[in-house]
Amino acid sequence: MxxxxxxxxxxxFTLFLSVFxxxxxxxxxKMLGLKxxxxxxxxxxxxxxxxxxxxxxxxxxxxxxxxxxxxxxxxYQGLRYAGxxxxxxxxxxxxxxxxxxxxxxxxxxGKPTTDCFFGRYTIxxxxxxxxxxxxxxxxxxxxxxxxxxGQYTFETLTPDNKEMQTLxxxxxxxxxxxxxxxxxxxxxxxxxxRVNDFPETISYTTQRFTLIRxxxxxxxxxxxxxxxxxxxxxxx
Length: 236
Prior knowledge:
Blueprint: H1 8-32, H2 55-61, H3 73-82, E1 94-99, H4 101-104, E2 107-108, E3 111-112, H5 117-120, H6 136-145, E4 147-149, E5 162-165, E6 180-185, E7 193-195, H7 202-206, E8 210-218, E9 223-227
Parallel strand pairs: 1-9
Antiparallel strand pairs: 1-4, 2-3, 5-6, 6-7, 7-8, 8-9
Helix pairs in contact: 3-6
């Protein structure tokens, strides 16, 4: 039987590599001028969701009190048109859905898109451009639907739907006679809050869910969730 000899080059290369690693590990500072990494205690922190003001104050601050931050201006205009008592947003132990301007009026090709309020709730023969194009009662009931008794936020919501009782009067909406809304937190790394996501809805079938843009803002009145698409309860 022939003897099998390892090539001399392989032996030499292995020896050279071992010596190089030993020198690099002990002389890194001298050769490259680099300092070895030191152990550091990293202090972790979580952003505080509390805003230390009522939902009403937060709405006003971001509607008209600042010339550079008016993301809730159209919502505020709608509340005024509907004649809703602003103190409803100062009451405690509630959950509020705030509408970003994009949830109310989003324009594409010169027309409101179907995922904003003015494009979803159309008027035959008319392009909706303002709240006064709708009956006052319709706008009022819609905004009452965006206020619920109880506090529903990341601490209380789960991947399973949780029903909230809104302030919208019962039997106003034939598709939603109880005036309820359901929320759940999606079980993924983004942990988004999803609105009215249940099998009987059109959004469930078409996979066009309403996701909360910014959730879990904690006001003195209760949690605030901001949506940038129209909120609706649509069954098949």
